[in-house]
Every structure is written in C-alpha cells, then in structure tokens.
C-alpha cells in the first residue's frame, strides 16, 4: 500500500524557510518522504500521535532535533504535511 502525500500552503511556506536555514537536511527529508509513502508508521520515523490541541495530528522525526507534523487519513491513504521545524516550533 502506498500513501499520497499532500502539502498545505502553510507547510510549503514554512518548508522553504526551514530548508534555507538547514540545506543539509533536504536529502534526509526526501528519504523520510519515501518512507512515509510506503509506511507512515515505520519504526525509524518514530511516528506518534500528539495530544492536547494537536490531538488530530501525528509527529514524524526528521532527525533528533527536527519534526514534521502531519495528519494521516488511513481510509483515503492520504498524508497531509502540516508543519516542519524544531520540537518547540511545531508544538
């Protein structure tokens, strides 16, 4: 099963700024996207459900410091990228 990845306008804007500051993470991000398409719950992604006001979202690790927040629609096999940044920036 393969998932469809969609990006919100906010994500696109945030990602442009993020990768301008962190160009060395672009290849890592591409690898993470490939894993998300195949299995958004792959162990290396450390995917986990969030709590509180973000309870409808999941967090996926880009690396130790940076995260990607997403919504996962299992029924439609769609993953919507919402935000990218450090732990403090996305939560």
Outline the structure in words.
This protein has 91 residues and is an alpha+beta fold. The chain has a single domain, classed as YaeB-like fold (2-Layer Sandwich). It has three helices and five strands, in the order βααββββα. The chain has helices at 9-21, 26-38, 87-90, and strands at residues 4-7, 48-49, 58-61, 66-73, 78-86. The protein has a five-stranded mixed β-sheet with strand order 1-5-4-3-2. The longest helix is centred in the first third of the chain and has 13 residues, at 9-21. It is globular.
* Helix residue percentage: 25-40%
Q: How far apart lie the N and C ends?
A: 29 Å
Question: pLDDT below 50 for ≥5 consecutive residues: which ranges?
Answer: none
Q: Provide the number of structural domains.
A: 1
